[in-house]
Amino acid sequence: MLTIKRLAEYVGVTVRAVRHYHQTGLLPEPERDSSGYRRYDAQAIVDLIRIKTMAEAGTPLPRIQELMTADPAHFAEAVAEIDAALERQIDELRQRRTRLADLVGGDRLFLPAEIADYLQQLRELGVSERGVRMERDGWIMLTANYPDTALEWIALKREQLADPAFREFYLTYDRAYDWRPDDPRLDALADVMAERLRQEARATGVETARMTIQETVSKDEQALLATHVSEYSPAWIRLNELLRQRVSA
Amino acid sequence: MLTIKRLAEYVGVTVRAVRHYHQTGLLPEPERDSSGYRRYDAQAIVDLIRIKTMAEAGTPLPRIQELMTADPAHFAEAVAEIDAALERQIDELRQRRTRLADLVGGDRLFLPAEIADYLQQLRELGVSERGVRMERDGWIMLTANYPDTALEWIALKREQLADPAFREFYLTYDRAYDWRPDDPRLDALADVMAERLRQEARATGVETARMTIQETVSKDEQALLATHVSEYSPAWIRLNELLRQRVSA
DNA sequence: TCGAAGGTTGACGCTGGGTCAAGGTCCAGC
DNA sequence: GCTGGACCTTGACCCAGCGTCAACCTTCGA
Q1: Whole domain around residue A191: which residue ranges?
Q2: Are the CB atoms for B70 and B60 separated by under 8 Å?
Q3: A72, B144: Cβ pair inside 8 Å?
Q4: What is the DSSP string of A218-245?
Q5: Does one domain contain both B188 and B156?
Q6: Identity of the residue in B57, B89, B96 whose CB atom sits nearest the CB atom of A57
Q7: Integer Cα distance of B238 and B87 in angstroms
Q8: Residue B11 above 60 pLDDT?
Q9: Chosen domain end from A102, A125, A141
């Protein structure tokens, strides 16, 4: 006959757990000796090991209680289910490991692969961290609100980025952030931007698919840009003014 | 800008969880709009996904909070730790699957392999379920109290079981359980048992190793047998009497 | 204009025990 | 025979990480 501590130690659970199982009726209370101590027999060991094994496998205690009195066929069936659940858990843990890997370094956790690739291209191009982060945040919001549209649009952006002239322009625009608002280069940049806008307008006039996208997005784009207007530098604000002059003209 | 539900849905957590993170300070409370609704930006999505990823990997929320403001080097180190923990969890789940398999059919979960094998041999020999269970319970208690001794003793038992004459005797003894106490076959059985005891006494007189084991165990054996005396049948009680007559003689 | 859907705070509930507190018992060594 | 330390008893509160009401306010599409 065993005391509660010997039982718990042999099976590998805590004394508190055993008492908890008694309280909930999962493990029957054993006889007491003359001093009121619980005295356990071999069946208690068998029961407790079964309980422990199933509990460790994630089975809720009430479910274990059901199974302790189930016939062998039902029991085997339930164990098979528990085993399948364990297998699923293992698969999930594996997936979590891969996602965890994306935590350190990379936007792959927050964005579809295409967009994360695009951001990576920007970095490799030499775009500032600030610039990349503004892009990233914009794409995140866009993806959260219109995932399909975001994917269509990113395809266009990556096409653009294949053009060396556009890359040149993008870099300049990125650097202009830190210029002084009276920097004369801003005028030249505004010229380039206006020309690009005009070309794009002609292109979208022809290609209806792109037109649709532009229309769908334009409202949100406004909203997205507005989100970050507070982060605009004096140079960019000035650039906006210059641009508006040229476009409205 | 997102409402709490859109945020939660996009990231894949519940609204309640987001609010919980706000309460504990894990995720900063965002600005409210004019009606008091929370409005989330892209950074909230990034933060929440990081939180979710680490939380799913089993990281306690306070620990996550520490890591959210940690520098990249410390963060990467911590993520490596979390990943290692995940790996250990996967290994443990695998082990639990194997132990779970022993739950259905078999005593391997409760007893060392040698003893489980011995019980299996008894079953194959044709010993009654009751008999096997009495043996099992005895071995469990013995193993719980004196694991080393149990292993030494089981070796002897398995040797005995290799002897066809002993197997024959064991089976008869097992079946005698259900005989009537005045069954004349009990006398013959008592003769055989007495003879066996005498032989064993001579053997243990020679082999000191076995002697030691017998001595060590004898007290506990008494206790163990006493445990199950209540389960003795009338025939077995009678057999005990007959045996005592012959041995004391 | 109205009802459904979504937002707000606040409070209690749940699992599976951990961790005191305040005693009563057992046993080994002196 | 006594004492100290390990063990037993019940009872109570505490924890994470949310789930789940309740009671009320706001927004939005038909």
Answers
A1: 105-248
A2: no
A3: no
A4: HHHHHHHHHHHHTT--HHHHHHHHHHHH
A5: yes
A6: B96
A7: 60
A8: yes
A9: A102
Q: Is the per-residue pLDDT at A221 higher than 80?
A: no
List the single residue in A with minimal CA-CA distance to B103: A50
Residue B49, chain A, CB below 8 Å: the answer is yes
**Positions on chain D within 7 A of a protein C-beta:** 7-10, 16-20, 25-27
B127 and B237 fall within a common domain: yes
CA of A187 vs chain B CAs: smallest distance (Å): 32
- Positive or negative CA dihedral for A170, A175, A179, A183? negative
Please name the amino acid found at residue B111: L
The two three-digit tokens of residue A205, written as one number: 């006039």
Please tell me whether residues B60 and B158 are part of one structural domain: no
Are A96 and B10 in contact (CB < 8 Å)? no
> Tell me, what CATH number does B97's domain have?
1.10.1660.10
Indicate the helix (H) or strand (E) that contains B39.
none
Is the pLDDT confidence value at A119 over 70? yes
Mutate to test the interface with B, among A97, A145, A222 (most CBs of B within 10 A): A97
Domain count, chain A: 2
Based on the domain organization, do B136 and B234 belong to the same domain? yes
Which amino acid residue lies closest to nucleotide D27, measuring CA to C1'? B35
One domain for residues A76 and A125: no
* Residue B230 pLDDT class (50, 70, 90 cuts): low
How many angstroms separate the CA atoms of B58 and B82, rounded?
8
Instruction: Name residues whose C-beta falls within 8 Å of residue A5's C-beta, 6 or more positions apart in sequence.
Output: A15
pLDDT in tens, A189-200: 999 888 887 877
**Does residue B125 sit in the same domain as residue B233?**
yes
The chain B residue lying nearest A54, using CA atoms, is: B100
Q: Look at B57 and A110 and tell me if their CB atoms are within 8 Å.
A: no
> Based on the domain organization, do B12 and B87 belong to the same domain?
yes
- Whether B147 shows a pLDDT value over 90: the answer reads no
- For nucleic chain C, give residues with Cβ below 7 angstroms from it: A 14, 16-17, 20, 33-37, 55, 60-62; B 3-6, 15, 19, 32, 36-38
| Nearest by Cα to B54 from B45, B44, B63, B42 | B63
Give yes or no for CB of A223 within 7 Å of strand D. Answer: no
Domain limit, last residue, from A85, A102, A119: A102
- A42 and A89 in a common domain: yes
How many whole angstroms from its chain centre is CA A28? Answer: 46
B6 interface with A at CB cutoff 8 Å? yes
Q: How far is the CA of B183 from the C1' of D24 (A)?
A: 85
